[in-house]
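Fresh eyes needed here. Kindly weigh in on this sequence plus structure tokens:
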Amino acid sequence: MKRILLLPFLLATIFSTRYSLAFQGIQQDSLEQVFQNQELSDSIRYRAIQQLTFSMIFSEGERAKTKIQEVLNTAEMEVGRSRIYFEILQNLGIYYDVNQQTDSSLIIFSQILEESKKQGWKGLEQRSLNNLGMNRLNSSDYRAAIEYFSQSLEISRKDPDAKEANFVASISNLGLANQELELYDQAITYHQEALAIRERLNDPNGIAISCANLGICHRLMGKEKEAESYYQRAIENAKIAGNKVLFHRVHDNLGSLYIGQKNFEKGLLMLEIALDNSDGFTPDPKMELSITSNAAAAHIHLGQTDKALEFANRGLRILDANPDLVNYSLTLKNTLAKIYFRKGDFEKGNAYLEEYEQLNKKVFDQENVKLLTDLQVKYDLEKKENQIALQNAEILEQNATLQRNYFAFIALGLLLILIVAVFVFYQNRNKRKRQLLLIDRELKIKEAYIQASLESQEQERRRMAQDLHDGFGQYISALRMYVSQLKSDQAKEELKSELVSRTDSVLDEMSKEISNVVYDLMPATLIRFGLIAALEDLSHRINAGQKVNLQIDAEDLPNRMDELVEINLFRICQEWINNVLKYAKAQHILVTISQAEGFARLQILDDGQGFDSGVFQHSKRNGWKNITTRTELLSGKLELLTQEGQQGTSLSITFPYLHRAN
């Protein structure tokens, strides 16, 4: 499965407005001079060096770590382990987090949180919670991340003196958590709220971060024009802020966007800027692998095979030095296969194609596991929000009761108005409870679908094990007997010739059995050539029996659809056609697939015996559950038209689908 490598910008903001404005416009050398001036107060000196080391994290890499450690040693000697010391220590934790050393940053942020609670440093406690949330988000622990961000935001909003700069990072990071959970509408709401605050604060670095994340959300939603606009704005503000990490990463994302639109000239220009190290920036291996893979893919589309191979070999060197990045090399392996096929080196081309297919399956399986985890987190998140909504409703009810008591002595007219208001309140509260019950029911239905899918997988494994045992057991026993007789010195030449012939026949049968088992697991035609080719292959197999005629009709479809869509549609067709062959006594089956105006439609018609569709409501078999589960995964609508005693049945599935060129 092809996926676009997007790099979310998980950065934390640690300075409040009163600190950032004090040094606004001061260059790094000026901040260093402020720190070295012993005549100034410790507070002013260390605020200056705090801002300097923070900016170095995103522009000077390893030098930032060395500088922070030097300042920490100086601070411990001059002011001890005071609040100033822990403010500087926070920068070291952010350095580790940005450079994906999450274990080290977790220890530092936890230490700062414990000390700030002990000393009553509310501002530092709020920022520590926010940074711990970022740490957990970087580790894909979304539940813990959302909890930390919510606590951080709650502390800021309870503080009457808190300014927007105190809690804008928590709002932005809640957007990131929803973004990682693919709740893009909610994520965009948070990011836009954070962007509005950062615009009021005139914070170019924060504006760049919000715009970059808004660009990612819009692109994942298929809104490429909006994504392009936000990416360009993120680049402009990252340049103003001197945030080199963000500047180069957004160029990589924008280049990937243009290449997806087949605008290779613009895409390659963006990737060239992303790789350019003339400003002293060196991309991390994961980012460099993404850029070189995208560049190689663009050049192969342009027919520039040698240039594509140059970038592909660079990507291989990165992969050799960082084998843990293998899951991000799908584009690279697929491009290498295309390069060597074009060069006529079919052996290497097939080798890379096989690596791509194996890695694709591995990534597909891992994403399925992650999907189940994300579904559970979404369920917990929505459950928690529902609980909060109920608590708020109870608080509102208590307030209404207090108001009724307070206005008990008001005139009869006001009392009547109050009664009406209470009645409306209870109506709205009951309506909200009903809505929450409906949401809870939908979540339970989703859980049931997941359970049905797991049961189907287990049943398929048992069936495959039984087929292998029954199918191959008898063949192996026959082969052993024939080989034993061939070894015998007493066997005549005529008998040996006949035994060899029988052995050859058994091997042919075993080959056919293996082919059938592999086809049931996953047809090679589906993976290599797509849904229509796989269905036509299925029709050839069925029509060869000359009992039923299966016809495939595809209208206005691209050569390939999204891989998950193709797999789900093929399995639905396979399941229902098998059902027709077993029970309907049909002579003709017609499968039509069409696409128009943002929707795709699958319809299977047969001229067999109709039946009562209610049998599926009480059926314990998994066939119908598999069809409904896969329809749900496609966000589709399923319609079954049949009637007992009448001839002919129609199964149709309509689902939203917009083709995206791979």
Remarks:
- The two ends are 10 Å apart (CA to CA).
- The longest strand covers residues 599-609.
- The beta strands are 549-555, 588-596, 599-609, 637-641, 647-656.
